[in-house]
Amino acid sequence: MSNKFYGRTLPALTEIKNEVLPADRRARLAPIFFAGALIGLGATLIKTKPRFGNVPNPSQFGDMPRRKGWRRAAQKSRDGVATFAPSNVTDSLGRSLLLGGAALLVARVLDEAAGRNGK
């Protein structure tokens, strides 16, 4: 059975569903293993804190007050933004990997728990 759509013949939804679904077990479980790898890599980066991720102190020219107004404003802005900057970039990357892996794992597990349509 097919449907007409702007002069083209489209396959019926049941034909598409039978071709695409159900995914084999390996394809359904692959995201779980991938999420585990993301979580493991993120935890490793946070725990080991590699030296190549260290960021130098932003106040390289010192903290003494500046005479000119725009330099004082730049110094205050630098100090304000520095509170949000990470001291080790790999910590931020590790946290992102942990969050992404956990989100992928939860989404995949809930997808498996939800089951197929109509069942």
UniProtKB/TrEMBL annotation:
The chain crosses the membrane at residues 29-46. Keywords: Membrane, Transmembrane, Transmembrane helix. This is Uncharacterized protein. It comes from Salipiger profundus.
